[in-house]
Amino acid sequence: MSTSFLNRNSSLHCSTNLSINGRHRQGPMTCNIIFRKHLQSDTSRSFRFFCCRRYDTFNTAAHHFSGSKQNLIVSCVRENAPKYFDFLVIGSGVAGLRYALEVSKYGSVAVITKAEPHESNTNYAQGGVSAVLCPSDSVESHMHDTMVAGAYLCDEETVRVVCTEGPDRIKELIAMGASFDHGEDGQLHLAREGGHSHHRIVHAADMTGREIERALLKAVDDDPNISIFEHHFAIDLLTSQDHEEIYCHGVDALNSETQKVSRFIGKATLLASGGAGHIYPLTTNPLVSTGDGIAMAHRAQAVISNMEFVQFHPTALADEGLPIKPTMKRTNAFLITEAVRGDGGILYNQSMQRFMPLYDERAELAPRDIVARSIDDQLKKRGEKYALLDISHKPRGQILAHFPNIALECLRFGLDITQAPIPVVPAAHYMCGGVLAGLHGETNIKGLYVAGEVACTGLHGANRLASNSLLEALVFARRAVQPSVKHMSLSPVLNDLNIWARPVFPESLKDCIVDDINSRTREVREELQSVMWEYVGIVRSTGRLKNAEQKVGELEEEWEKFLFRRGWKTTMINREACEMRNLFCCAKLVVSSALSRRESRGLHFTEDFPHVEESRRKPTIIFPASPGTHTWSTQQKLFFLYYIIGNDAKFDISI
Ligand SMILES: Cc1cc2nc3c(=O)[nH]c(=O)nc-3n(C[C@H](O)[C@H](O)[C@H](O)COP(=O)(O)OP(=O)(O)OC[C@H]3O[C@@H](n4cnc5c(N)ncnc54)[C@H](O)[C@@H]3O)c2cc1C
């Protein structure tokens, strides 16, 4: 296992063995503790009223209910009082919801989500979910395709687990009401995408994620043990330390409708907060994907891995090439699924010259990283802003049946894809790295599990195979259940929840000052995104990465100084500032990881080390930051465990 001591704030303290799923990973951990004498008297364990909103289905407007369990909103008697649950789930995409539906069989569940419940990467997934469902296909073949795409950096055990358990996870989804396309023979229609050697993509036209999200939210709505807290922004995990072990006890979350902070206490917590696409200015990810989970976990001393592997999707819709330009800049780029290339779509430059065969013998069916780099190269060489993806040579009926959503979106802007090519450009799409997880989603923090895009399970290695991420989320959400239930049943009662300083909304600052802070924060966000695009994009070099490291560091320092000059305090939070510090954190993790990989592999291509080096076929590991160098952006909430459960209490949990 390679080690990288990555950003300026990350430094090695004492070395310890990390035991993740019995696979011991040698690594350093910090043992420093921060004490904060901030006691509040407003928490009362007898006060178990909570404020929640039940959600119907993703398509209907959320509304308040009263009365029955099914349609319940218990009024917010005291938002300040801690809310107790057996299980906390941060995120309501496929990973969070699937886990919630399993653990609810064992206890109460709070799903905390920062926007509307359906707003997630999951909801935008087009292509589908891969699984071995055809008799002529095999687990070995799926494994092989995954590892080839992952440039042999994948963890073979993880790949085997995911490919083996995948088919059952799909069958469960169908049993829960998800409806996928069927062929004329009545069997599931299995599509094929780049990098897959078989037809194995289960899909619902080109809106697969939306169908999965709909089915899961409906099931959650019918489950009396699950409460969804929408518009609740998870700020920081509440952790404690006992010798070398760190424990997670819950999370503070800002209700962005009331601007009050709620403290959620849970016996087991699943982090399922998705990716970090918004560290780049052009991304297919919705606005919620700001890397909050990765940053939160990093601050809480979780081990992070493989952050250099950012997948750029080669074909996002290039708005500037549309006959009618959208009046407003989109917050997330519209994806043109790779299935268009799988169905025979051909890439051209603006002179209608087909270019992919010049770069790879698989032409348009080459893996995403190669296609993205080829488009990037064409655009740079020709000084063009977008390339063209043409599917119009295929029968009109087939195009409209396979890509109804894409056809409709393009038509809104005057483009008939059955007649003319689609303007496309690469966009940040998927984070292969994340919080290091074992085979059951466990992390180095006891009681904290991860699943979905926030996790680095070892499945994707250096590059994600198309349609493997929904699958990974389903498999790991399920695998995290058993250890979570065990942890939940052994967790002691906490007797002091006030040791963690309460974050506060900056009510004491004048509105004009907060406006000023928010406005500067928006500018800084754009500046960070353009640094990342320019210096940490599809093609990298050591010089450009070092430049990025310096610029990001300076920008963060300047931004923090600006905040504090305006009267900001270390306990203050609002959504804009929290997202900004999380974006900074993720950007720095990407840059540092990229600098430490001195080879080109999968999604990480650097001009200075353009070849694969067998001796460097190891994941990048980022160990916790040193508390000694903490700024507001990197501070954490960590206490001695005995402060919370008492000196004699036992808290011996292993899976
Ligand atoms: C356009 C697009 C197309 C894709 N197509 C495919 C495909 O065809 N096949 C495939 O396998 N994969 C696809 N992917 C990737 C796949 O959709 C994601 O990897 C997967 O959905 C991730 O699921 P998740 O549950 O981990 O995270 P998400 O679905 O992103 O959910 C994260 C949740 O966490 C919440 N959250 C985030 N931060 C906070 C916070 N601070 N506090 C509270 N809540 C928070 C969000 O609001 C959201 O509810 C696609 C992705 C995109 C963007």
TrEMBL record:
Chaperone in keyword set: no
Primary location class: plastid
Localization per Swiss-Prot or TrEMBL: Plastid, Chloroplast
EC number: 1.4.3.16
InterPro entries: FAD-dep_OxRdtase_2_FAD-bd (IPR003953), FAD/NAD-bd_sf (IPR036188), Fum_R/Succ_DH_flav-like_C_sf (IPR037099), Fum_Rdtase/Succ_DH_flav-like_C (IPR015939), NadB (IPR005288), Succ_DH/fumarate_Rdtase_cat_sf (IPR027477)
Keywords, ordered alphabetically: FAD, Flavoprotein, Oxidoreductase, Pyridine nucleotide biosynthesis
Domain of life: Eukaryota
Swiss-Prot/TrEMBL catalytic activity: L-aspartate + O2 = iminosuccinate + H2O2
UniProt-listed NCBIfam families: nadB
Family statement: Belongs to the FAD-dependent oxidoreductase 2 family. NadB subfamily.
Protein name as catalogued: L-aspartate oxidase
